[in-house]
Amino acid sequence: MSIFNTSETDIATFFLIGIPGLESANIWVSIPICLMHIVAIMGNCTILFFIKMEPSLHEPMYYFLSMLAVSDLGLSFSSLPTMLRIFLFNAPGISPNACIAQEFFIHGFSAMESSVLLIMSFDRFIAICNPLRYASILTSTRVIKIGLVFSLKNVLLILPFPFTLKHLRYCKKNLLSHSYCLHQDVMKLACSDNKINVIYGLFVALTGILDITCIFMSYMLILKAVLGIASQNERLKVLNTCVSHIIAVLIFYVPIISLSVIYRFAKYSSPMVKILMADVFLLVPPLMNPVIYCVKNQQIRNLILMKLCQKYS
């Protein structure tokens, strides 16, 4: 217990945790976690490869999909090092500087993924509600500018996190709640006033709520436009173009919302539930997004099948 009950001197190491009660089975837990990371990385790299190499995919929708793949790769690579250390090598210790750097990248790529899902909802809105002007509105230059603006916005949004955490003093507690570092988790360990972190963390959370609100409004407008189509077959055909994006939105936001509800209304629930829900948030979107878009998108699916047929013919 001595490593968790520290004195008033500044602590030099934080300790992450795996899955409570399954410490003896860490090596077995590492197998599915490693497989999920490998599949996620290979899947997103495959999408980026085909979008780059295939001229027919040089369209706004696929450029936005490539941004989503980059965000997913960022999330995978940000969480992978500490998860491997804990589950594969049983090494839960991490320096405060490394922990703060990890939380910056995790929150940064999470914010980027939220922004990309928002952009993709606008893309679907323009494609369905104003199809004749779609190509003139979303030109390649404009798509690049949109990507750069949102990337800069997210960097500036998350950039204060490491600086505010660095100004806190950590002298009593050093046990974190997950197998990776998060801002809200690290700031709770501080023995100095963390009011600024709480307020700014709330502001960042509100930007995420704004993203999902705008996505919801986009789909309300899309639904209104679809209901104006006379043919039922045409309605289904139009809605089918949104299915992949809707699933991606649900996969990303449902774990976040569920985790927030658990922390707010079920404070005394099992720590296992909170840990697993947080792990789902980081592991599942990067894993499932490539699968969803490869299965639902005919162009990408046909290209992959064609490459596989050429390889084995």
From TrEMBL:
GO terms for molecular function: G protein-coupled receptor activity; olfactory receptor activity. The chain crosses the membrane at residues 27-50, 62-84, 104-122, 143-163, 198-222, 243-263, 275-295. It is found in: Cell membrane; Membrane. Keywords: Cell membrane, G-protein coupled receptor, Membrane, Olfaction, Receptor, Sensory transduction, Transducer, Transmembrane, Transmembrane helix. GO terms for biological process: cellular response to lipid. InterPro entries: GPCR_Rhodpsn, GPCR_Rhodpsn_7TM, Olfact_rcpt, OR51/52/56-like. Residues 43-293 form the G-protein coupled receptors family 1 profile domain. The keyword Membrane applies. Belongs to the G-protein coupled receptor 1 family. Putative odorant or sperm cell receptor. This is Olfactory receptor. It comes from Bos indicus.
